[in-house]
Amino acid sequence: MRVFFLMASLAATTFLTSVHAAGASSKVEIRKTTDGGFELVRNGAPFFINGAGGTGFLENLVQAGGNSIRTWGIEQLESAGGEKNLLDRAHELGLAVSVGLWVQHERHGFSYNDPAAVQKQRDEIRAAVRKYKNHPAVLVWGLGNEMEGPTSDGSDPRIWKELEQLARIIKAEDPNHPVMTVIASAAATKVRGIQQYYPSIDILGVNSYGGAMGVGSTLQSLGWDKPFALTEFGPLGHWEVPKTSWGAPIEPTSRDKAASYYVTKTKVVEDGRGKCVGTYVFLWGQKQEVTSTWYGMFLKTGEKLPTVDAMTMAWTGKWPANRSPKILKIESPLANAVVSRSQEYPVQATVEDREGDNLRFDWEVRAETTEQSVGGDAESEPPAVPGCLASGSGDAVVVRTPSKPGAYRLFVTVRDGKGGASADNLAFQVQ
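^ that's the sequence the OP posted. Answer follows.
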């Protein structure tokens, strides 16, 4: 099954190159398959989404076997770095784009009871579709992302009714690209609300982490009879993991994350039973959310993490020529412990590198974030605490705990000097 999808993706990429040369817009439709499932057909060729959420490291994505990116808002299209906008840059590389059209969230202060605000949003979405609909990189319109609220049960029909109006606007302006709307998890009330109030949706996008592999069977049990895409998946979410005694979420190791990415990509397609038209891994880039390493697949200095290698294997069936170093374990009495101020603790990292590269180890202590963001809202990275590396270097160091009480994390980053890295952390609290 994976080989078939890879061949289809390569065929679509080849076709895109010829379309680019001709300067033609794309045409995407949904076709029923003989086994009762669905597939995307882009410019006459089957197209299964092997995608990533994010706008950077696009060359790396192509090298890894990806064929699409997903954005969240129109402002992301205006720049890809340098002189090209994102759509031009993506198309130059043979990447199709799920173009995000941001639908406002009431938790951000928007009111769906305000006719003027609602009309303004409609006008903005109409203008965006008119502006970009003929670009050959457009794959689908991503109408909204978790606009029901990431912690909502989706029982408010106003959101679904307004999405129906917005989808009709898009279809009137552009009949050549499907409309996909993304929700946070395949909750029954959300799916039934969409079925009742939002019939113009073409593809249901679902963001899911711990439950990602079961999205297809869940949708089937709820009677969903249209295509779906897994629009965000990755490690266990910070709301899904065990916590320390003081309530800090314990981040999965880089090794566990890589395994999770690979298995999820493989299993969700099987579980989708022909109705899954693709997946978007999260996040093809770097961000601070709980920690600076939880969801990003790259370091802020640009090195790829083992999750990129895992997706390369999932997309192509082969490992990359240079694999990131692998942190096997970190051992220390400091791990998940409540400790005293200005005390010293040994830390030992066990790491392997398949190519035998010379590895560089960087250790630092950072304060635990105090920002309680919701739904991926922006956070600032906590500052590093100076003076915490008492002695040692490489894979074995002695850490001195901060003099100020509070919650902290010890991070270790291992780089191979060839573009690969791994990063793990352990939490501790100073009394």
